[in-house]
Amino acid sequence: MSAAAEKVVEKVRDAVHGGNEIPGAPGTQAPPVDEPTDAREPLPPKPDQRGPETYSPTGQETGIPQEKVAQGGERLTTAQGARLYDTDHSLKAGPRGPVLIQDHHLREKITHFDHERIPERVVHARGAAAHGVFRGYGAAAGITKAAFLAEGVETPVFVRFSTVLGSRGSADTVRDTRGVATKFYTGEGVFDLVGNNIPVFFIQDALKFPDVIHAGKPHPDREIPQAQSAHDTFWDFVTLHTEATHHTLWNMSDRGIPRSYRMMEGFGVHTFRLVNAEGATTLVKFHWKPKLGVHSLVWEEAQITAGVDPDFHRRDLADAIEAGAFPQWELGVQTFPDTEEQMFEGIDLLDPTKIVPEELAPVRPIGLMTLNANPSNYFAETEQVAFHVGHLVPGIDVTDDPLLQGRLFSYLDTQISRLGGPNFGQLPINRTHAPVNDMLRDGMHQTAVHTGVAPYHPNSLDGGCPFLAGEETGAYIEVPVEVPAARKVRDAAASFDDHFSQPRLFWLSMSPTEREHIVAAYTFELGKCWETAIKERALKVLANIDPDLCAHVAAGLGLPAPEASLVPAVVEPSPALSQLGGDWPVEGRTIGIVTSGADDLDGVREVRRAVLDAGMVPLVIAPAGGVLDQDGDPVTVQRTFTTARSTEFDAILVAGAPAPAEEAYGARDAKADDDMAVVTAIDPRPLLMVTEAYRHGKAIGAWGEGVGALEAAGLPEGPAGVVFGTTASAVLQAVTRLLGGHRVWGRFTPAL
Ligand code: HDE
């Protein structure tokens, strides 16, 4: 090594080990000048980065925590604390006169309002979040020194779920990937695990990210369609960049339309590197496994919900937490030896379009997350939270996955325009729970009042502080991995060229019903494309996944099915990828109970109580709102025939449904009346509810007069998942059993 190079190495070593912090560390030399190494008295206080103190400069305590200052007091004031006597009338020259420019309250109020909006996230703009706690099992202690993963350690977390393509006000249930971003407020600093509900990504290199997002976002001329991938530019991109085939296939599967944020898996996608106290490293992929299982909507349900309840997922998460049905996920890792080639069973661990099937590398649980509190303020918390894949703690490091490397740049950068400057880390939701003692100063929205005169290192004025940490004193030290000598190239490893073996593996792992959903999704989305050339190119891509898939979609599009251009890969299906089968907890499931208001109210009460006892949510649906009270024991109505739609319920129980009320339909002529009587004996709205629920594979039960209502709807007992009983509780028991499987899958008769 040249003398100059040796000097550089020494400098880096010094920076890492904190000068003399690690006596005797190999190669450590005394610095060339006499740097302070011990703190001198008196040590000036170094405030951490909390916001302004809760006492006023006059020393008077407000007693209100900084985060809760707004609307904390009795009297309305200006932002400066002056009390106001009127906030409805501008200051004018007489009651009918012009407004005076001296009206500070008017100007302050309007100016603040004018600046209430910040730019929405360029991707993942629509989200919902919750607070919670993570408890380590200790199972990862052998492979990582991360303290928050040690046994029994509890760490506060904040999790934001999101869709990718839509704007802030778009619907929740669109077909899209979902974000699952978790902020762990550990004692060693913030760790952000910024993942998705799909374990692979569209592209392999960050350089293509703006391109794929431009293609997925609305067309630039008319700005339509909103929150959709069913349009030409999206399909143009993903068929020209066939590395996107795997992710797109997951999008077209039921994973693209989750039933609930509570019922989604989360994936770190990239391979990460863990390091233990001895310096041994392990490659891992992170997984979140929901305790409630992984479940999805069916497509028609998702479409209806986007119209009748665009906030479906947001509401579902908040309601469940408010009701005490706290959602839980186990964090797990797949582990791989950290070899030079970073491959496992022929799968390139640095390629983010590849999974490692769980049958080859089981997911080992290492901790449990429970979400137990809703945010108090959407903007302050859910909107202002700023995640970054570079927020790491000792024991967790990144790999050279080129997508991950690009993300390390992007997440810091984006916050600066979104949150208006470099001090976003001081916002309450972003503040670390570890002590902060940085040398970052000033900038827009600086809220810390730093003292001291020497924000540089080393210094001899501020008592020498701050000193650097070393390995033993908890420094974050990047794993010193070897980087093999290579030429600078714009290229990727040859293994990145395999774009079809894993899509085929996914397709072959699906059950017939799931395959049918995939065919329907492709047929819908490609059917929405305008250009025939794009549909034809998409069919060529599908042919290389599976000829059967291609033939069915081609038939739906009315186009010839092309031949595959590649020899199909020989792959072993991974049963773990299918969502069907299994018996899951039913906590938090929503049961609609339809009553005419005049039928078995005792049964309604009984079934309501039993649903609650089972940890589920009963919603009573009656012809009109209010309280049903035939005998002094009231039943509250949560939904009416007008406000309820089947999509809100996981199962429907029918106690009875009345004939249509005349007034509900207004004046009709006599002929229409006659027609109505012929068509149905019951109100068409509950009729629609049960037929729709039937079509969507939901369990339906009836007792008493409800049996007649279901028969009138053309649902006599017998078809899969339609249960008749003599008592409400017997029917509920049967329906609850069916709910454990999420849907009555036997009702679907797939042709595939
Ligand atoms: Fe992101 N991504 N991303 N992403 N991402 C953002 O950061 C980016 C990628 C993910 O709830 C942005 O603060 C690049 C993969 C989630 O606040 C931005 C690349 C995965 C969220 C950004 C990717 C994700 C984001 C926009 C390719 C799954 C929402 C706002 C190299 C592993 C976080 C923001 C939240 C958000 C960049 C690819 C997940 C622009 C450049 C792969 C869950 O920085």
TrEMBL record:
It catalyses: 2 H2O2 = O2 + 2 H2O. Residues 1-73 are annotated as: Disordered. Residues 77-465 form the Catalase core domain. InterPro entries: Catalase, Catalase_AS, Catalase_clade2, Catalase_clade2_helical, Catalase_core, Catalase_haem_BS, Catalase_immune_responsive, Catalase_large_C. Its cofactor is heme. There is a cross-link at residues 388-411 (3'-histidyl-3-tyrosine (His-Tyr)). Transmembrane segments: none annotated. PROSITE patterns: CATALASE_1, CATALASE_2, CATALASE_3. Coiled coil: none annotated. Its EC number is 1.11.1.6. The active site is at 124, 196. GO terms for cellular component: cytosol. Residues 7-16, 37-51 have a biased composition (Basic and acidic residues). SMART domains: Catalase. GO terms for biological process: hydrogen peroxide catabolic process; response to oxidative stress. It comes from the Bacteria. Heme binds at residues 121, 160, 209, 407, 411, 418. It holds the Pfam family Catalase-rel. It is an enzyme of class 1 (oxidoreductase). GO terms for molecular function: catalase activity; heme binding; metal ion binding. Keywords: Heme, Hydrogen peroxide, Iron, Metal-binding, Oxidoreductase, Peroxidase. Decomposes hydrogen peroxide into water and oxygen; serves to protect cells from the toxic effects of hydrogen peroxide. Belongs to the catalase family. HPII subfamily. PANTHER family: CATALASE, CATALASE-B. This is Catalase. It comes from Wenjunlia tyrosinilytica.
